[in-house]
Amino acid sequence: MAKVGGYHTIVGIIPDGADLNQTVTDLNGIGIGGEDLTAILKRKDPEVPEPFPEGTRYIVIPDDSRGLEIAVAFAAVFAVSGLLFAFTTPEIGAILFIFFIALAAILATATFTRVGVTPILMDIEAPAEESGFWNDEFERGKVLVFASTEDRRTLEAAWEVFRRQNIYFDIIGGRLKPRPLSGAVLHHAAVRGDERPVEEAGQASGKS
């Protein structure tokens, strides 16, 4: 094997659709698959199987507001607490009122902020500048594909796969293997849409 000084990962930003499956199939054909190939996409129901080629590792991020109810509840509690202190303890009420209202405002703002794929990118220690762009494109409906190899010829072949299909990509030093976080679900595509047991965020083991 002609190594390239350790693993490198090509991160492709691919439009969601039929071309995505073709890209995954082509990467499988040059020898990138299994734990070295991961797609990340967003769906309303993260547990519905995707029609990927058999064995494809993919992570689905839920496109909903799950988990935000807690933040909203805490924001309401802080707002009410601030009002109570303002009326019951006038001496320190004004200061506590401002403090609790500020906390409530921070939490309320957080409920309208889209988390996207950022927690997963932070977990794999993706470069900050690139990951910001990846997250923006992900929120615009694109799919992220991570293809890793330590073989020079395979890396060049993967490069050609993306270039041939006119797909934007970055090459990052190291093996980036995303895992599910913040409500995301990990799947392994199987024959006829059957799936291996999914791995949800919170059940994920340590980094590989």
Would you kindly provide a written description of the structure presented here, covering whatever features stand out?
With 208 residues, the protein is α+β, with helices and mostly antiparallel strands. It has helices spanning 18-29, 68-88, 90-110, 118-123, 128-139, 152-164; strands spanning 3-15, 37-43, 57-62, 142-151, 168-173, 185-188, 199-200. Strands 5-1-4-2-3-6-7 form a 7-stranded mixed beta sheet, with helices on both faces. The longest helix has 21 residues, at 68-88. The two termini are 22 Å apart.
Present the secondary structure layout.
Elements lengths: L2 E13 L2 H12 L7 E7 L13 E6 L5 H21 L1 H21 L7 H6 L4 H12 L2 E10 H13 L3 E6 L11 E4 L10 E2 L8
Parallel strand pairs: 2-3
Antiparallel strand pairs: 1-4, 1-5, 2-4, 3-6, 6-7
Helix pairs in contact: 2-3
Main traits of this protein?
disordered C terminus; single chain; alpha+beta; 208 residues; 41% helix
The coarse silhouette is elongated
- Number-wise, the strands total 7
Strand adjacency order, main sheet: 5-1-4-2-3-6-7
Largest sheet: 7 strands, mixed
Rg is: 22 Å
What's the helix count?
Answer: 6
N- to C-terminal separation? Answer: 22 Å
Order of helices and strands: EHEEHHHHEHEEE
Helix content: 40-55%
* Poorly predicted segments: 66-71, 200-208
